[in-house]
Amino acid sequence: MSAVYVWIETFQGRAQPGSWEALGAASKLGLPVVALVFGKDASAIAQEAARYGAERCLVSEDATLESYRLEPYAALLSKLVQDNRPRLVLASATLRGRELLAASAADTNCALLSDVMTFEVNDGTVTATRAAYAGKVLSDVEATGETVFLTLRGRAFKAQAANEAASAQIETVEPVLAEAKIATKIEGFEAEAGGVNLSDAAIIVSGGRGMANNPKPAPPDAADAAVWKAQDGFKNTLQPLADVLGGAVGASRAAVDAGYISYAHQVGQTGKTVSPELYIACGISGAIQHQAGMRSSRIIVAINKDADAPIFKIARYGLVGDLYEIVPALTAELKRRLGK
User: Which end of the chain is less packed: N or C, by CB atoms within 10 Å?
Assistant: First the structure.
């Protein structure tokens, strides 16, 4: 019987949350769900995958797969697909997920549908919905073939509730490439100072060009008063709101280009594409390039002085006014209600 393969993305022995969403999507298809876990602590992660819906796990903890490298990962995935011909191969649409599935789809001469938001399987056809034209329209696409690869947009699918009593059959598979045949070598990893993981955040509070309207006076030694005010606004106005909600701080390209905050926080066509449960846009006009990175958020709240700002057209809730008055009041009320 045909199965659904789900690649479980890991980093330093931990699974990435989007992989559980992919398992949740696979579990609804009525086909056997097989998790593919390569690398460090793969057997332990396979047990975790069972709790999120995997019925069978193919694992490899070989030293060549300890950390993600395209060559050995794609070679092993392609061999498993060629040998077993699953109906679908799924992965979260992260940088690694998109790269790995694209390489393996090419190796196996199979169709690939990327950044999928919904999909269904009817006989020999896979029909999927994905965003097009910077998210302004939704496009329905189809693929046929014995095996179809799909990368799934983050937070477009829900992970199953973990079943602590679940177990799965675990089978060890051998790597395809020996170390001597792998061109890429990993010397180590260096954490980015002040890094932020917007892709996994369920709540994001973002600031834009309007952050420079901070009424707080800049110190006499400030090189640029507007930049200082905006940086202070991100730190002392948006960050407290994000903290009380358990979220992350994002920004528009205009804010990043102006030096208000680092690129790691940028949301949009040239930054991160996010799909949080709640996206609060503060002082962001809502240019199409920014909308491309956040318009799939479940609930969008816009705070802006300009009632005609484009962001209000896609927002569920809109507040017209000064973000430096609204955000602190909102933070204080949330602290009171949440008991923080």
Answer: N
